[in-house]
Specification:
Layout (H helix, E strand, L loop, with lengths): L1 E13 L9 E8 L5 E5 L8 H13 L6 E5 L16 H28 L7 E4 L2 E4 L2 E7 H10 L5 E7 L18 E13 L5 E11 L6 H20 L5 E2 L2 E2 L4 H4 L9 E7 L21 H13 L10 H14 L6
Parallel strand pairs: 3-4, 10-13
Antiparallel strand pairs: 1-9, 2-3, 2-8, 5-6, 6-7, 9-10, 11-12
Helix pairs in contact: 1-2, 2-3, 4-6
């Protein structure tokens, strides 16, 4: 016989390091003679999509096309120190560093463009869609590439480094009160499961994940990050286990550890909630770890709802679930595993 259950998991997560710890990032932006842009950052993109987002931010700030921007990341010979790639901080901290570098570049570019366009003020110079024009006379325009070449011909430096520090004050040591983090991420996930009461096998049928990301700079990457975090959470909840005995690890291979495969992925329904946070780039916050955190609680709560038992240990694999069902049948009440 199979029983179904529904469970919810919620979380909030402090973005970055918090508690008065240094939390900085740097980014160097260079404009080449042909108008192409190079972004250099020490932050590592290991699948979360930060390279694309930094290029998006640079393109937006400088008014150039995305395809004209390239990135060099985590090259110890050429990229500036950006701190560790951790704590779901890259977009928030690194994105602000890119914006600061671009802001400095824009001042230089506008000064040169003002002379070329004979604009009244530097702030009248607008850069958008690979073009540079006078807002008071939009027909008076040049290409971004021509502006870049003019800067090079005049010996004007068009490379800048932006530095952003996300360090927050520490909380009060006496009361524990204060703003430990600059921003918080929020999420709720709902899981629907089906449990085979003859074997203890759990199948996750559907998982709905709603995440407040501040502002989704790259919505497709946000959805992918949510889906990836959910799959990691399923492994944590249902299959992944390191066994030890007498101080020795007994789980020696990934074949014994059992991570989820593509065949184990249920229907995942991501929902992007946008509540811009004041300090983030365009209001954006991080998403890396928050995508994983609520999944296991949602799945475990759904199993408990289906079987009317208490499960307080993981993984809830078929052996452990079957054992708790047997204990319930013997005693007439749920029992922890």
């Amino acid at each position: 016989m199979k029983k179904r259950g529904i469970g919810v998991g919620c979380m909030y997560y402090g973005l970055g390091y918090g508690y008065s710890r240094p939390d900085f990032a740097s980014a160097t932006i260079e404009i080449c003679q042909d108008g192409s842009v190079i972004v250099r950052t020490g932050q590592v993109d290991y699948g979360q999509g930060s390279d694309a987002i930094f290029c998006q931010i640079a393109a937006e700030e400088l008014g150039v096309k995305y395809e004209n921007v390239t990135i060099i990341a985590a090259d110890t010979a050429t990229t500036p120190d950006s701190g560790p790639t951790s704590a779901s901080r890259l977009v928030y901290v690194g994105g602000n560093a890119v914006i600061k570098a671009c802001a400095a570049l824009k001042k230089t570019l506008q000064a040169v463009a003002r002379a070329l366009l004979e604009a009244e003020k530097e702030e009248d110079v607008v850069m958008a869609r690979n073009e540079v024009y006078d807002r008071n006379r939009p027909e008076n325009k040049i290409s971004f590439a021509r502006l870049a070449m003019a800067c090079h011909q005049r010996g004007v430096q068009i490379v800048e480094t932006g530095w952003y520090d996300n360090m927050t004050p520490d909380v009060d040591p006496e009361t524990g009160q204060g703003d430990a983090y600059a921003a918080y991420c929020w999420a709720a996930q709902l899981a629907e499961v089906e449990v085979d009461t003859d074997t203890g096998q759990v199948e996750v049928l559907r998982l709905i994940a709603a995440h407040d990301v501040g502002k989704a700079i790259n919505p497709c990457a946000v959805e992918g990050q949510i889906e990836g975090g959910v799959v990691m959470g399923l492994g944590y909840a249902l299959t992944e286990e390191v066994k030890s005995a007498g101080g020795y690890i007994k789980t020696r291979t990934l074949g014994e550890y059992t991570v989820p495969t593509s065949l184990d992925v249920p229907e995942i329904e991501p929902h992007i909630v946008e509540v811009p946070t004041p300090g983030g780039p365009y209001g954006a916050k991080g998403l890396g770890e928050p995508a994983l955190i609520p999944t296991a609680p949602a799945v475990i709560n759904a199993i408990c709802n289906a079987l009317e038992v208490q499960i307080t240990d993981m993984p809830a694999n078929l052996e452990n679930v079957f054992r708790v069902m047997q204990a319930r049948d013997r005693t007439g009440r749920g029992r922890e595993i």
